[in-house]
Amino acid sequence: MAIAYLLIVIVAAALAFHFWSPWWLTPLASNWRQMDDTLTITLVITGVAFVVVNLFVAWAIFRYRHRDGHRAAYEPHNRRLEGWLIGITTVGIAAMLAPGLFVYAKLIDPPANARVVEVVGQQWQWRFRLPGPDGRLGSSDPRYVTADNPLGLNPKDPANQDNRIVDAPELHLLVGEPVKLLLRAKDVLHDFYVPPFRTRMNMVPGMVTQMWLTPTRTGRFDILCAQLCGVGHANMRGVVVVDDKPAYDAWVAKLPTFAVLQAQHAGAVTSDPLAAKGKLLAQAKGCVSCHTVDGSPGVGPTWHGLFGKTETFQDGSSAHVDDAYLAAFIRNPTARVPKGFAPIMPKLDLTDDELKALIAYIKTLSATASTSAQPAPPTPAPVMQLAQNSLQTPRPPAQFAPLTPSASPNPATQPPSQPARRQGGGGTAGLPLLNDPGTTAPPLAIPPRQSGSPAARRPARHRRVCR
């Protein structure tokens, strides 16, 4: 009998928590109210089943409890009961699944006038690309991915030259305007998810997935990765800012084009080749998603002032941070864990030259780094802000070392949205989307065949292992 009473208490507590819980969905910020409707249908059906099944079990325990002189009647089959159970279960499952299928069909069928934005996921950061004045995204392919071309855009495709590159985890959208998101991943499975938009979509390496939405109110909303993509999964954060027309146009006007970024990278290499290569590697390998360069706290030790300091480890020992220390730590990051940090850094697949470049960049971030063994660097150009995934929101993107020409910094971030208390034609042909074969913005394409010259270089291949 104690079990029967316990089941009744569990049902009552579950219903009370549901109706009087202070936590509920975040306020809706897109056109997808149908997502909330399908969730409500699922909660109602599963809630009714939960209550009925548990109360039936409690009644059965009480009604058929053991009593002296009574013997249970054995009935192995009851076709009428089995028919009712099969029918009710079928109707309930169909009622839960059918609405979701209709909503999903609409989710991947964007309006003809929707703006196009490409979202690229990588451990553990977000990047974005917008078309230029012609409204077309140029082709891309993983074989074009290099440290200075992390999106793998085809440099020979004319449609790419005016594409706007958002090399930071902050995307702006225009309120009231539908937008089609083309989603791709560079390494492992990711999932682009903004809770107030209610929409999410898997990002599969080698594929282009898509969804669309219409932002309905201005504000700042967190971007989350809804797939376990590695040890830095929880830090794969970003923000979507929904603007009105003047603010959105001002933001777009500040974005650099692909052609401008390529020219800036070439200029940085001319001024300080090794450090410039290290900065691009830190960005391409995802180092900036865990290590800040402005001294602010992060998942890993900040690189600002790291070189030349004395690092203390969890076992109480300490070591002077020099070239040998950085090389050993990057090669085997869990051998000695700095105090106050978790041993979650994965081993990076770096060549000796890449390792030297990364160390050279870290040295430029330290005011105490010795310069006696190196020639005096030329006068640095103005600071250029590069990508940095926000590890602790809110926190403005970090400023990188002055190696490239200036670009307008992003505005300071604001606190992310919080859960509310419950109130009651042309260009290079590429890979078409399966559900949108007529798209003119293909993010993937087969690159042109390389010439037979032995001097032709092959873009570096980046590998990531998700554990």
Automatic annotation (TrEMBL):
Transmembrane segments: 40-62, 83-105
GO BP: ATP synthesis coupled electron transport
Compositionally skewed regions (Basic residues) per UniProt: 458-467
Keywords: Copper, Electron transport, Heme, Iron, Membrane, Metal-binding, Translocase, Transmembrane, Transmembrane helix, Transport
Subcellular location: Membrane; Periplasm
Signal peptide stretch: none
PROSITE patterns attached to this UniProt entry: COX2, COX2_CUA, CYTC
EC assignment: 7.1.1.9
InterPro entries: CcO_II, CcO_II-like_C, Copper_CuA, Cupredoxin, Cyt_c-like_dom, Cyt_c-like_dom_sf, Cyt_c_oxidase_su2_TM_sf
Pfam families: COX2, Cytochrom_C
Topology in the lipid bilayer: Multi-pass membrane protein
Family stated for the protein in its record: Belongs to the cytochrome c oxidase subunit 2 family.
Protein name: cytochrome-c oxidase
Species this chain originates from: Pandoraea horticolens
